[in-house]
Structure formats: structure tokens, C-alpha cells
From TrEMBL:
Organism whose genome encodes this protein: Chlorogloeopsis fritschii PCC 6912
Similarity remark: Belongs to the radical SAM superfamily. 7-carboxy-7-deazaguanine synthase family.
Keywords: 4Fe-4S, Iron, Iron-sulfur, Lyase, Magnesium, Metal-binding, Queuosine biosynthesis, S-adenosyl-L-methionine
Cofactor (UniProt): S-adenosyl-L-methionine; [4Fe-4S] cluster; Mg(2+)
Catalytic reaction annotation: 6-carboxy-5,6,7,8-tetrahydropterin + H(+) = 7-carboxy-7-carbaguanine + NH4(+)
Highest rank taxon of the organism: Bacteria
Molecular-function GO terms, alphabetical: 4 iron, 4 sulfur cluster binding; carbon-nitrogen lyase activity; magnesium ion binding; S-adenosyl-L-methionine binding
Gene this protein is translated from: queE
CDD domains noted in UniProt: Radical_SAM
Single Gene Ontology BP annotation: tRNA queuosine(34) biosynthetic process
Annotated positions binding substrate: I20, Q21, G22, R35, T100
UniProt protein name: 7-carboxy-7-deazaguanine synthase
Length: 265
């Protein structure tokens, strides 16, 4: 008789901490952030390049917002992560849990087991921040999500191109009735044709899906990933692009990264 080996789910993490969400529909709310390691994209504007590979250790905040980090080894077990999130969840502080990265969907197998349990123990809604290019993995965890922020990667700004995957991804979100919004990072290099194509794609799924135009936060010289530095768009460009996108969807908001202004993580 062969015995089946049951492997316990583990995840590779960067950090767990409590902070104010600085982007998109949940801007200003307090969240427990779980930042997963690994990303399979290489966006030119990435401010999280340290997540691209797995560090041997992760840092876990002890008390919400106090930055009293403890260091633990990767990978971490599901039960351990639940304990850390429970420790952060001092009522009534947090509005939701944010799954971020890196690309959290690279951990979909782990999340399928983790999410129902963390929902039960905290009672908090679950928010996914994602590059929006892995619809198959999204489908596996959609039943456990409350809201999704999908980054739309414009080739002219990010260097990435995932039009078909974005369309499938948004369609899945729309059909599941999870709350979804689209975030588009814009820079001085933004090609308006890319923006139009993105607006059309979103509107074909539903013109009710809100779009957030997020002017890029320029990276420090030491963080630049390409030879050509990326700059924020001029104010008049942003006004023109908001008007352009309003031809496609009802809500187009322009919101820069407010956590950077507040000097938050
Ligand atoms: S998807 Fe996010 S983490 Fe990955 S390269 Fe792009 S900006 Fe960086």
C-alpha cells in the first residue's frame, strides 16, 4: 500500500505590518498588509524590486503600526501566519487585510487554504493587489476575496504587455461580483493610444468599473531599473488623460501614492 505524503502549506513572505492604504479605492483605510515574495513581471517603475526573489528571512511587526519588527525564516507555515495576523488584529483598528507583493497570486495554492481560515479568525474583508495577469490563479481564490485592485500594465509605461490576461481577469472579477477597480500608472512616457485601448477593454467588461490613474512616483537614482529615468506626467497631461478615459467608464479618479506623502510603508 502506498502512503500519500501530505505537504503542509507554506508561503514565502517579505513582511507583515499594519499601515494606511495609499492607493486606489481603499485609500486612507487601515489594513493589515501581508507582502508576499516573488514577482514574475519586471515593471520599469517597480518600487518593490526587493520582492522579486525570496529572501531567507521575513520581518513581522509585533504591534500594529509600531514598526517593532521581528525577523523569521522563510518559508513560513500557514498556522504561523494566522498567529501573526491575529496578533495584529486589535479591534476595531483595521478595515481589511491586504494581500500584496510581489505578486500574491504566485501563492494561490497557499491562499486557497489560508484565506478561509484568516477570514474566520479575524472577520476582516480580504483585498487583493495584483498585476492582473494570472486569471487561472485568481479563479481559485475568488470565492474568498471581497475586493480586487488590478494593475493595468500599459506597455508604454511599464514595459509589460498583458492585454488578453487583463481582459480575462477583469471578466472573472465582474462575473463573481467581487468589488473591483483598475489602477493605471501613468508617467511622462504614457502613450495615449495605450490609455484608450485600456479604457475600451475595461468598458467592454463594464463601464461601472472605476479606473484610478496614478501618476508615477519617480524612483531614486539608486532604484532606477532602466537607463531612462521615469518622471511623473505634467499636470496638463493628467487632465487630458482623465477626460479621455471618461469617454469609456463612469468613474476616473486621479490619485497619487498617498502613503509615500505620509511617509508610510
Ligand atoms: S507587478 Fe508590482 S512587484 Fe511586480 S514588477 Fe510590477 S510593480 Fe513590481
Amino acid at each position: 500500500m502506498t502512503t500519500k505524503t501530505v505537504t503542509k502549506p507554506t508561503a514565502r513572505l517579505i513582511e507583515v505590518f499594519s499601515a494606511i492604504q495609499g492607493e486606489g479605492l481603499n485609500v486612507g483605510t487601515r489594513q493589515i498588509f501581508i507582502r508576499f515574495a516573488l514577482c514574475d513581471l519586471r515593471c520599469h517603475f517597480c518600487d518593490s524590486a526587493h520582492t522579486w526573489s525570496t529572501p531567507t528571512t521575513c520581518r513581522i511587526e509585533r504591534s500594529p503600526g509600531l514598526r517593532d519588527f521581528e525577523i523569521y525564516s522563510n518559508p513560513v507555515s500557514l498556522t504561523q501566519l494566522i498567529e501573526w495576523v491575529k496578533r495584529q488584529n486589535i479591534l476595531p483598528l483595521h478595515d481589511s487585510i491586504s494581500l500584496t507583493g510581489g505578486e500574491p497570486l504566485l501563492h494561490a495554492q497557499f491562499l486557497v487554504e489560508f484565506l478561509p481560515q484568516v477570514r474566520t479568525v479575524t472577520g476582516l474583508p480580504i483585498y487583493l493587489e495584483t498585476g492582473g495577469h494570472r486569471p487561472e490563479q485568481l479563479a481559485n481564490i475568488l470565492p474568498y476575496l471581497d475586493s480586487v485592485g488590478m494593475d493595468f500594465k500599459l506597455p508604454s509605461v511599464s514595459g509589460e504587455s498583458h492585454w488578453q490576461e487583463h481582459a480575462k481577469f477583469l471578466q472573472l472579477c465582474y462575473e463573481s461580483q467581487v468589488e473591483v477597480f483598475v489602477k493605471i500608472i501613468v508617467s511622462d512616457k504614457t502613450d495615449p493610444t495605450d490609455l484608450e485601448d485600456a479604457g475600451l477593454l475595461v468598458a467592454e467588461v463594464s463601464p461601472q468599473i472605476p479606473i484610478f490613474l496614478q501618476p508615477v512616483t519617480p524612483l531614486a537614482a539608486s532604484e532606477q531599473l532602466t537607463q531612462n529615468p521615469i518622471f511623473a506626467p505634467a499636470p496638463e497631461q493628467v487632465l487630458i488623460w482623465q477626460a479621455l478615459m471618461k469617454r469609456f467608464v463612469k468613474q476616473v479618479r486621479v490619485v497619487p501614492q498617498t502613503h509615500k506623502m505620509l511617509n508610510q510603508l
